[in-house]
């Protein structure tokens, strides 16, 4: 494998790990449900996506070609994570889950 490919894969793994760690820390540290939902949804989706791209790149450089399962996992991750976060947020709004007083823009009060 060429050094450029190794650097690309290592970079994607580092980026993916960093975003996943940031999302996990955000989940633990944020004060209310809505911000806890926001942090892992955005950061972890990018993190897992970068890790999956690294896996696809590695398998294609090893000569195995692009694995359809890995590609489908990446596509479904990017499609389902925002939709499920939206459904969770709307459910929380309808149930009246408390939010931080500093929250700007209150669509549930309209």
UniProtKB/TrEMBL annotation:
The chain crosses the membrane at residues 6-27, 39-59, 71-89. InterPro entries: PhaG_MnhG_YufB. One of its GO terms (molecular function) is sodium:proton antiporter activity. Pfam families: PhaG_MnhG_YufB. The keyword Transmembrane applies. It comes from the Bacteria. Keywords: Membrane, Transmembrane, Transmembrane helix. This is Multisubunit potassium/proton antiporter, PhaG subunit (TC 2.A.63.1.1). It comes from Marinobacter zhejiangensis. The lineage of its organism: Bacteria, Pseudomonadati, Pseudomonadota, Gammaproteobacteria, Pseudomonadales.
């Amino acid at each position: 494998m060429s050094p450029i490919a190794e650097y690309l894969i290592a970079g994607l793994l580092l980026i993916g790990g960093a975003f996943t760690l940031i999302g996990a820390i955000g989940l633990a540290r944020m004060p209310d449900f809505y911000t806890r939902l926001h942090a892992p949804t955005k950061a972890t989706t990018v993190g897992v996506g970068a890790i999956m791209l690294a896996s696809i790149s590695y398998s294609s450089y090893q000569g195995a070609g692009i694995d359809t399962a890995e590609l489908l996992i990446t596509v479904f991750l990017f499609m389902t994570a925002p939709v499920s976060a939206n459904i969770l947020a709307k459910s929380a709004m309808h149930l009246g889950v408390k939010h931080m007083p500093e929250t700007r823009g209150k669509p549930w009060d309209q």
